[in-house]
Amino acid sequence: MNVAIASDHAGYPLKVLLVKHLATLGHEVTDLGTDSPDRAVDYPDFAEKAARAVTSGAARRAIVVCGSGVGACVAANKLKGIRAGLCHDTYSAHQGVEHDDMNVICLGARIIGQALAFEIAKAFLSAEFSNEERHKRRLDKISALEKNN
Known about the structure:
This protein is an alpha/beta fold. The protein has six helices and five strands.
């Protein structure tokens, strides 16, 4: 799968590990920055880059890493067509795709460790939307909220 990944400075060390790990799983990974843990940058800039990769079709899904994951999630969800979720467990990572057609996950590098991040990313990227009527109905309601706001 073509996956975009981005982080701020707090998420950089975990992002680097994820890029390498996802490549070993056969994913095409596009690293959208940042390029250093030593220079402070703003997480909305990198959440936007990853989310735009999804909305443009350059990536099927995206992963954004910041300190807590919260700010990146808030920022990514501001873009039309993005359904980002903060995931610190594998159940949320796959269920968010299966039921909510989540296309971006946000991870907190100061919250979870490397092994769990790898498991969460795998669960997210392995999952597919169920296409069940109840889930499609709910997504239509989310789209209406987005359109009418």
